[in-house]
Amino acid sequence: MIIDELLARAHRDPGAPTTWTEDLRLIGALSPQLAGLTVPADMSSPGAQPPALSRPRITAVVLTCDEQERVGDCIRALARDVDEVLVIDSGSTDGTLEIVTKQPVPTRVVHATWRDDFAHQRNLAFDHVREGWILMVDADEVLSAASAGTIRRGLALLDHLLPGIDLAVCPRILDTDDVGGLYTDLPRVLRAQTALRYRGRIHERAYDRQGNAPQSVHLTSLFHHFGYRPAVVEAKSKLDRHARLLDLCRGQEPENPKWIFYQIRAEMNAPTDPARSRELFERLEASLTLCPQGSPDYIADRRQDTWALLCELALRFGGADEIATYAPLLDRAQREAEAAYFRTVVAMSRALAMLSRLADDVEEATRHNPRSTVRQIGRLHELHGLLALASGRYDRIRTALQAALDHGAGSTLAADMAALQRVLADWESPQAPGAPSLSRPTSSRPGTN
Fold first, then answer.
1. Ramachandran region, residue 294 (left: φ > 0; alpha: ψ -120 to 50; beta: rest)
2. pLDDT, tens digit, for every residue of 84-133?
3. Phi, psi at residue 133, to the nearest 5°?
4. How does 121-156 read in b/e, with b if 16+ C-beta sit within 10 Å?
């Protein structure tokens, strides 16, 4: 039996009584190379009893600089999952370090000057942790109460299933700002004896010596991330810091297309007119030539995201042909949801434009048909109203409906409008407190601090 089959069986039978089967359901997904490996014999035989899993040593590594608001909550939430917390502090002047020393989890503090390089700060952990697992946690992240203990259980299982394999473990990280975002692909857990190291002053990720990303396991353990609430972003000048670090990355690696991607993505946080959007599109599209087939992941790991961002930019200047070029690439990369969105927006825009033109044609026909009957003109007015409703030209509907009723027609349009009024009467505005937002602006992900 291979691991993928074992996981499928565990998820298919949630009532399975064995402890390790319950722990298997903590694994949400894993790389195809790992999924195809053979399951240890003590877990694959019929009626297998739970194997005795070793308790892994886990060290949480927390980067700090004036993090007194959240760091206590961050460390306390890890009490069931880690043996110690290594705090790498880059010059806190508030109460951060005092709070750290008062937590119920054993802590060590390493003082390290900030060098405008998040990867450097994270990699310092490997000089101080020699065994077990290293769990990277941002100081403004808190493990959910429901996930307490799941990281230790998940890593114990991985030690048994995949002993000694160099891999990255990705928990789920949920933004708590008012626009939200759930991230499942951030490499936050590595073995202490790994050859992997983080690279990138910002948007840092783990790579091997050749610059390729490791195989990965995705856990269902959930962290809440508080770092991108507007007040926090402003107080810590995060956007200015991110821009400075990206400039440094571009200066050091001008031929690395990922930094072009991140800079253009950051610029899209501000409104861009169609001309500027096309200019950004052309610059981003040109960056793809810097990422030929076979490039290491450190160069190529934002290629698919670049296709998606090109489609976003094309929407802003009405680039239907450009979307027709890049949406199929997203499809082939198994990013069908994004591809379907971009294709559908283009098709919808074309359909709405056609409906709008038809509304104009029908309205014109109501004025120049002296030989038509009153009933026929009434039907045209009603059709005009229905087309206006379908194309979003709501200012025309009332006039069209009244004209249709005056000519003995309009029952269908009147019924549609009455049904719409009933729906709107029960509608809860998306802007109401606590209600979900309909869209998320492009922003930096957690893990980039």
1. left
2. 999 999 999 999 999 999 999 999 999 999 999 999 999 999 999 999 99
3. -120, 150
4. bbbbbbeebeebbbbbbbbbbbbeeebeebbbbbbb
